Amino acid sequence: xxxxxxxxxxxxxxxxxxxxxxxxxxxxxxxxxxxxxxxxxxxxxxxxxxxxxxxxxxxxxxxxxxxxxxxxxxxxxxxxxxxxxxxxxxxxxxxxxxxxxxxxxxxxxxxxxxxxxxxxxxxxxxxxxxxxxxxxxxxxxxxxxxxxxxxxxxxxxxxxxxxxxxxxxxxxxxxxxxxxxxxxxxxxxxxxxxxxxxxxxxxxxxxxxxxxxxxxxxxxxxxxxxxxxxxxxxxxxxxxxxxxxxxxxxxxxxxxxxxxxxxxxxxxxxxxxxxxxxxxxxxxxxxxxxxxxxxxxxxxxxxxxxxxxxxxxxxxxxxxxxxxxxxxxxxxxxxxxxxxxxxxxxxx
Amino acid sequence: xxxxxxxxxxxxxxxxxxxxxxxxxxxxxxxxxxxxxxxxxxxxxxxxxxxxxxxxxxxxxxxxxxxxxxxxxxxxxxxxxxxxxxxxxxxxxxxxxxxxxxxxxxxxxxxxxxxxxxxxxxxxxxxxxxxxxxxxxxxxxxxxxxxxxxxxxxxxxxxxxxxxxxxxxxxxxxxxxxxxxxxxxxxxxxxxxxxxxxxxxxxxxxxxxxxxxxxxxxxxxxxxxxxxxxxxxxxxxxxxxxxxxxxxxxxxxxxxxxxxxxxxxxxxxxxxxxxxxxxxxxxxxxxxxxxxxxxxxxxxxxxxxxxxxxxxxxxxxxxxxxxxxxxxxxxxxxxxxxxxxxxxxxxx
Lengths: 348, 348
Description:
The structure is a homodimer. Chain A has helices at residues 15-26, 46-49, 64-67, 83-95, 110-113, 115-127, 137-150, 171-177, 184-194, 200-211, 300-317; strands at 7-11, 30-35, 60-61, 74-77, 99-102, 131-134, 155-166, 216-227, 232-234, 239-241, 246-257, 262-270, 278-287, 290-298, 321-323. By secondary structure, chain A is an alpha/beta fold. Chain A has two domains: 7-136 and 302-341, NAD(P)-binding Rossmann-like Domain (Rossmann fold, 3-Layer(aba) Sandwich), CATH 3.40.50; 138-298, Dihydrodipicolinate Reductase, domain 2 (2-Layer Sandwich). A seven-stranded parallel β-sheet of chain A has the order 3-2-1-4-5-6-15, with helices on both faces. A six-stranded mixed β-sheet of chain A has the order 8-11-12-7-13-14, covered by helices on one side. In chain A, strands 9-10 form a two-stranded antiparallel ribbon. In chain A, helix 2 links the parallel strand 2 (30-35) and strand 3. The longest helix of chain A is centred in the last third of the chain and has 18 residues, at 300-317. The N and C termini of chain A lie close together (12 Å). At the A-B interface, helix 7, strand 14 and helix 11 of A face helix 7, strand 14 and helix 11 of B.
């Protein structure tokens, strides 16, 4: 166990970064830098921007180079959802020898959809003795719990997952990403023109397949919009959404594997109505004929952050490079200050 | 990866051992010995005793010494529920350099209730380069899934579990163990005289606490009988149970820890009525305020066996000694013949 607290950078001080900042301080982590783009945040104390109820002495910087310094242990990076956008941010951290944990979804399994970028980042991590890992809600609820449930199976024929999350909970970037506010025609022409991006669903299934050494043979995506039944208000966008317009998507992927088992996952990200809660449901079919897992009332937004923070010791302890979750220990609850969980230098 | 199949001993050919024998053969494991006590089983082919639909060439032995030989990789031991009874069986396997996986419940966490025996077995395992591990339904459903769910918590105040299982599903030994057939007076006087044994509930919570480095400060058990509402039939005992007599127990433990979190688990083991199914439900309270996990229609009897079989590579790969599940990797689905998952000799 190291004597000194872990030194962390909060890289992205939006809805998620602000929660993470609070959790970090409560887990004995020293926040040594913060990065944000918005002119309304830059130059202010992180405690003020993240509404921590006290000053931290850490000034939010626009230029990450001013926030990073030698000896930083880890950067929690919550900026965007695609590796192409994130590459420069990750690279900068890694080149400073700073480990990265991100909620950027493609990084959950980057080897299919962004292999070249992933290889570049993997090399950078190895060169500078730093690792890069994606965590978030998917870590516990879509990967580790599901893989663990599969551990009770003698033969898996299919794995079927369903989940829902509130597209109003993650700020405007995410709400726009799932096309909240589009008319159905805008949605259709967007999809016709751009296709539908390989969001976290595909990456989740590919990570799950890799975790049990299965090889994807085909990936079949599907996407359909969820339309507002009545006029709605989007908190994330701060504007009304008219009845008939898009309030989210159901994003599905079916992954066939060379070895036989088929994995599918359908994720509904939409503006919730009164009484809706996040849920997560998985069924593994084969022998036994059915294994069931259900999580109700999942506080997705919060556990996205708790999972990232609980992952910090694993990522610092890990070998360098771009690592996926199948290569880390299962995520554990951290009762003690996070530096308690660091491997002793030179230890076993 | 070793080139040769894993060599296994089926040690105990009751309800569970018979299922395991089938799973082993389907996973490319070579069964090289079988042990049973019943005169009705001894001397017969394992395939006949376990109803495998074919002869195996393995004769069921009464004397385990005749079944064990040098080079056996693992014995799957399903004989009794207490370490004191099992000591000689485990010791014999370990002294042959044969790893052991057992569904004997106390071994899930033997360090409180049977420390001296556990230390003796730990020494024997280390001396003969063999490991001893308890698995079963508790591996996935009461430990790994729960610990994984806790991995999404920032602060745990309480963990509360509930499960049910069919006391008719595990043969007469287990049915008698939960006092099926007692009158309420017999049950009360049994408990008054003998106390209630530390069954798997306590061991589960102690293993769970150990998994997250919490230290038990007090253990509060509770037990109450479940009484038959009408005349019933016990398959396991092969006899009727009169209305008003015991058809099972609700066995509970609350474990307080020095660090603060409290863990509790209540297990209902009783003869099921038409339509009952096994379930498993856990709530973690703290921050987030609640995390929920539920498994419905759990095929407990089968997944007791699938979990043991899927654990085989982990136990062969493990360091020697008496190991608890917190010291093994999380259980994974095994799509390939089990020897595929063995660590390469001399490999990383």
